[in-house]
Amino acid sequence: QKEVEQNSGPLSVPEGAIASLNCTYSDRGSQSFFWYRQYSGKSPELIMFIYSNGDKEDGRFTAQLNKASQYVSLLIRDSQPSDSATYLCAAKLYNQGGKLIFGQGTELSVKP
Amino acid sequence: DAGVTQSPTHLIKTRGQHVTLRCSPISGHKSVSWYQQVLGQGPQFIFQYYEKEERGRGNFPDRFSARQFPNYSSELNVNALLLGDSALYLCASSLDAGVISGANVLTFGAGSRLTVL
What we know:
The complex is a heterodimer of chains A (112) and B (117). Chain A is mostly beta strands and 112 residues long.
């Protein structure tokens, strides 16, 4: 079992729709969770992080964390073609500062 | 302000050769981490350095080594290159070691793309 798993893509949504990206993790020692966006040929850029159960909103993005179910999600409202990228979910274990455990990524395609 | 800078951006090596990749963190950041990203996969942790000391090591062979300098810049060295070492090597910096804060955020550089022939 992979430590961090993401739903397989590619995920295709029409422009203006809500895109839902999901991630599960196996280690209950995971402390915080990060969503990165990576455009083709580029490096990952941080969208947001979450470490408390519940929802965290930042503009069009909402991260959701459920530690009991070991589940993290990212919702993108009003999806735009510029949101088309690979989204990486990462977990950080307690006491391991620089080590993020990444999932394999989910490719999102937003169609005009 | 300059972000995380990496050099070189692209390089081609042959099997058995050695490579050195360089990274300068964001000004004020004292921690540098290295990741390897193979095409189609998420980044994999290689090393973390904080205040010139190794703070973490991933599941990579001893052919991989790194160090951090007094100015917090860092080098990643890979010896005896294999075809499987072909990947994007990412350097990320953060303010501190991130041991206590769950919100320790890593900022990635543009990466060094290594091709081993």
